[in-house]
Amino acid sequence: MVVLERAGKAVGLGVILNGDGRVLAALSSLGNAQHLDVRYADDKLVPARVGHADRAHDLALVVPANGEHQLGLRAARDTGAALHAPLGTFVVAGRKAAPGPLLTATGPVAFTSNDGKPFPEALGFKTAPNATSLGSPLVDANGEVIAVVTRACQKKAGSGCAPAFVGTPVSVVREFLHSAPKTASVPTASLGVQVAPDDAGSARGLRIAAVRGSAAALGLRAGADARTADLIVALDGIPVTTSEAFNRIVQDHAVGDVVDLLVLGAGRYRHVTVVVSPAPR
Question: Is this model's pTM higher than 0.90 or not?
């Protein structure tokens, strides 16, 4: 679970798509914000944007600036058995997501989506969710998500449509995710260089095998051996001797972050500052 913030203020909850890194949220909790921040359980704050939205079903797909956090809750395959059992929720507690009250879903209710069309899949509740539970998953006894708390409309005699909290089931969420554009994906962080392990004799590190974009303008040299190429010895002060270690450190950064490279080239050490950019698709 994450807390979504705008200008330092919590606006709602989001749930990380397991193994994906993107965040599912209730669109109505975000207002008209296109850019916001995601605060994770380890208190790390990462800038993000709304990559896909469905006003009718009050769903938003929030795309963080990096994919460092990918551990989330799993969606249930069979939701029928859980519909009349208590379901776990979460609430916003300061800058954290905390366990909320248990909710029990009711049978079919005359809900309409926010575009005025029938919404027969929406789940009603015996008692209303906490106001800060927008975007919270509804979790069954197996720890799996069967729905997400969103807003819809409930028909009232003589008063038209009244706003109501509902559970939007994972079947609807899956359709929403399938319709997301390719641009709504987590960017892969890149320093604009390709590296290979090498040994310059006086130091071990990663030889720059290829360079592109702004990294080339910084004077970084690529080549087939340590005599013609620069050797990256450390990133942000951390020694690197394998491509795996290099990639792991880079992926811990968001696009726009600044990384300090300690480089050995032409017999001397120097520091080069590189801005993290999106990897080409």
Answer: no
